[in-house]
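Reminder to self: tokens first, then the designed residues, so the page reads top to bottom the way the pipeline ran.
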């Protein structure tokens, strides 16, 4: 049994040919860079017409190792609060396999993590990253984790477990937080809100990000994944965050009265 794709043909093209054509267009629009080693990336997860180029540009900045640990929000509210996928993922080009030792070690190390495929069954936030990762690293293995809203203390617990397991397994991994920014506000209001969140990310201040999103009611759907990834990255030696791009859906739709914001960042 494998997890079947639910976002193919909706958020990204449903065939390998269509995916290749879209990613080649992204490649043509992105300046050539030499990828560098990074600990984590923070990328958007909307339809490729809106945020795909930003995610592509961000991932193109970094070297993709054998394994990527992906954390995204659970939009549907099904399954475990911190759900680690247990099945390999079927995609239009074939199967993306799990890093089984890491997957199994997480719930063995902390009861906060549970093996649970229901949380991933209808969730798009991690699936949309896979065509991009496959483009840059065709043999990549994944550890997909979907999370409910958590307290900051639970974010710290999750990060401690992730850092411990990655260190114990002596794995070279890339951490990936999947998040969109402000939802359905005017471009002016969305940008104002998102700047406050991005400032905390650039300051490498996960507690500050958690607090400002809560206090200002910023509709950043992947705030908790981003906080967990930043906390984990710090424990793995990261000390800086760089903004690759900030944009919004109005760039594609032409409608700036109600946009969704997108940010791509690299943590090194």
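Designed residues (268 positions):
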């Amino acid at each position: 049994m494998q997890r079947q794709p639910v976002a193919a043909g909706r958020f990204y093209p449903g065939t390998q040919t269509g995916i290749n054509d879209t990613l080649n267009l992204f490649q043509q629009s992105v300046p050539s860079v030499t990828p560098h080693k990074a600990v984590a990336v923070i990328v958007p997860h909307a339809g490729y017409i809106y945020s795909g180029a930003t995610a592509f540009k961000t991932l193109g900045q970094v070297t993709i190792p054998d394994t990527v640990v992906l954390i995204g929000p659970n939009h549907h509210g099904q399954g475990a609060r911190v759900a680690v996928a247990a099945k390999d993922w079927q995609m239009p080009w074939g199967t993306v396999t799990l890093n089984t030792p890491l997957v199994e070690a997480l719930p063995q190390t902390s009861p906060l993590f549970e093996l649970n495929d229901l949380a991933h069954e209808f969730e798009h936030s991690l699936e949309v990253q896979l065509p991009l990762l496959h483009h840059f690293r065709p043999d990549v293995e994944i550890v997909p984790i979907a999370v409910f809203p958590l307290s900051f203390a639970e974010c710290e617990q999750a990060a401690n477990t992730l850092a411990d397991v990655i260190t114990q397994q002596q794995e070279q991994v890339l951490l990936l937080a999947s998040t969109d920014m402000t939802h359905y506000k005017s471009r002016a209001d969305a940008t104002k809100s998102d700047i406050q969140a991005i400032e905390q990310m650039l300051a490498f201040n996960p507690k500050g990000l958690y607090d400002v999103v809560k206090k200002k009611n910023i509709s950043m759907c992947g705030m908790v994944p981003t906080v967990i990834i930043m906390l984990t990255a710090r424990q793995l030696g990261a000390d800086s965050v760089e903004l690759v791009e900030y944009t919004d859906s109005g760039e594609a739709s032409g409608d700036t009265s109600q946009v969704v914001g997108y940010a791509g960042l690299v943590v090194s």
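The chain has ten helices and eleven strands.
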